[in-house]
Design goal:
With 111 residues, this protein is mostly helical. The protein has one domain (6-110). The chain has three helices and no strands. The protein is rod-shaped. The termini are far apart.
Length: 111
């Protein structure tokens, strides 16, 4: 198992993502299996770039992570909004039933 480099940890931190969340996003078992540069490809250094060069992969991976998170948050917001609308409609239906029952009871007393 390789560990994330200081530069990779720094880039993750600057993206307002914890290392634990970043790693779990790509490796659900929570064990980092990528390269030290922060790329999920364990052979990134020497293949995508040389050891002394910056890794462009981590920036792209952080963008993907952020985009997926934003989509998940939007989905969650829509789910909550739909649940609230359903609850409001349910309360309105109960209120209509209550009003109708009260009116029927009043009509029954007046006869």
């Amino acid at each position: 198992m390789t560990a994330l480099s200081w530069d990779a940890k720094n880039q993750i931190a600057w993206s307002n993502v914890s290392q634990v969340v970043y790693i779990a996003f790509w490796y659900p078992d929570g064990v980092w299996g990528g390269d030290t540069c922060g790329c999920i490809d364990d052979r990134c250094i020497g293949y995508h770039h040389e050891a002394w060069e910056d890794c462009g992969c981590i920036r792209a991976l952080l963008t993907i992570h952020r985009t997926e998170l934003e989509h998940a948050m939007q989905d969650r917001r829509l789910e909550v909004k739909a649940r609230r609308a359903a609850a409001v409609e349910e309360r309105r239906a109960r209120r209509r039933e209550s009003v109708a029952a009260g009116a029927a009871a009043r009509r029954g007393m007046g006869r």
